[in-house]
Design a protein that fits this description.
This protein has eleven helices and two strands, in the order H-H-H-H-H-H-H-H-H-H-E-E-H. The protein is mostly helical and 207 residues long. It folds into two domains: 123 residues, no CATH class; 48 residues, no CATH class. Helix 8 crosses helix 9.
Length: 207
């Protein structure tokens, strides 16, 4: 079950805690003492440590991860939180790719199903509250960067075809009064080295 075991009993200080983390120097280990040094000393505030581990900001020992350091960059912090939320609530996003838009009641029902009824109503409520509080701090609009890459591949394919077509036209060889029309079956590959070798051989032997 890819649902986090950690949650907050109160989310009122969540924005302030996240802001304080960004303004402070990253610790060697994110401990209760470090949190208290940021002036968050209540028992409910301490639960943020478990949540940060669920988000992949800290490892099991409390050591900041690469994701934690990326979060410190305020220009990308909302996207980093969204990334962590998608990982922490993996099964929820498998059920609904836009889980960040679900209502509170829908979230509770999804959590109940995903946990196979093993969580109490109180825990389900706190999970939903924590999830929605994190979503408010996150930016899911840039979650997928795959489409531009696909477009780039398509552009590369078009460019390859433009380079290949003139060579195919030149492959019509004339020897005296005889004409040869050479047709090539190109391999199904995107490796430019294959095409380079193929057309280099054509140039050497035909032109």
């Amino acid at each position: 079950m890819a649902l986090p075991k950690s949650y907050l009993t109160s989310v009122k200080n969540l924005p302030a805690i996240l802001a304080a983390i960004q303004q402070a120097q990253a610790p060697d280990r994110f401990t209760q003492a470090f949190l208290e040094s940021l002036e968050f000393k209540s028992s409910s505030d301490r639960l943020i440590i478990g949540v940060l581990k669920s988000l992949g900001f800290l490892d099991d020992s409390g050591t900041p991860t690469e994701r934690y350091y990326r979060f410190l960059d305020q220009t990308q912090a909302p996207q980093v939180i969204a990334e962590g939320v998608r990982d922490a609530y993996g099964d929820l996003f498998k059920v609904n790719k836009s889980a960040q838009t679900l209502s509170r009641n829908d979230l509770i029902n999804k959590f109940k199903t995903l946990s196979q009824g093993q969580l109490s109503d109180s825990v389900l409520d706190k999970l939903a509250t924590t999830f929605q509080a994190l979503v408010k701090e996150a930016d899911f609009s840039k979650a997928s960067e795959s489409l531009p890459e696909a477009t780039e591949e398509q552009e590369t394919s078009s460019a390859e075809r433009e380079q290949i077509n003139p060579l195919l036209e030149r492959s019509r060889v004339s020897l005296g009064g005889m004409h040869y029309n050479i047709q090539l079956i190109l391999p199904d590959t995107r490796d430019p080295k294959v095409f380079d070798a193929l057309f280099r051989s054509l140039r050497e032997h035909l032109f």
